[in-house]
Amino acid sequence: MTTITIVKRKGQVIMAADSLTTWGDTCEDAQTVINNDKIYRYQDNLFGFIGSSSWNLLFAHYLKSLKEQPLFDTPETIFSFCLDFHRALKEEYFINPNDNEDNSFESSQFLFLIANKHGIFGIDSWRSVQEYRNYYAYGSGFKFAVGAMHALWDKIDDPSEIAIAGIEAAARFDRNTGLPYSIEKIDLES
After folding, report:
1. What residues have CB less than 8 Å from 108, skipping those under 6 apart?
2. Structural element, H or E, at residue 155
3. What architecture is domain 3-178?
4. 11-28 tens-digit pLDDT
């Protein structure tokens, strides 16, 4: 699993991610795995995927196959993208959409955050899109990360420091989150 934080403040959007990969009880840290960055940059967008380490490769492969560049500027355009992406996940990438028979929708088996000049967005397995006002986190350590960021929100102005504090709190208390972290920045539209 992983933890990814996202913060919007002072004309910037910051995304930070841990670097630990786990396989059951086995941990593969940054000293073992070279391609451990969990943030994927596509044009002026940052994507942070939770779950399988294959997501960055799969997502990059899918985006390269598109004839037109998708928009990630509103919850509606992101939702439309996710519908097409889900179809491709089933037909081209053989994802298992079965999560729980009590669910109303097939699962896309992903959770990811998007940061871009338009804001910060979170997408869940059923393609629901949330637009966040200031900060949030996804992943196994998200509760620790959100708690740390909330505690610092009124005390620290630097969005990078807030995002990093979230990752560091998750790494301290969540066994599936580990340092070092990576961090990326995008400037917001004026």
Report:
1. 82, 85, 86, 89, 95, 97, 125, 126, 127
2. none
3. 4-Layer Sandwich (3.60)
4. 999 999 999 988 888 888
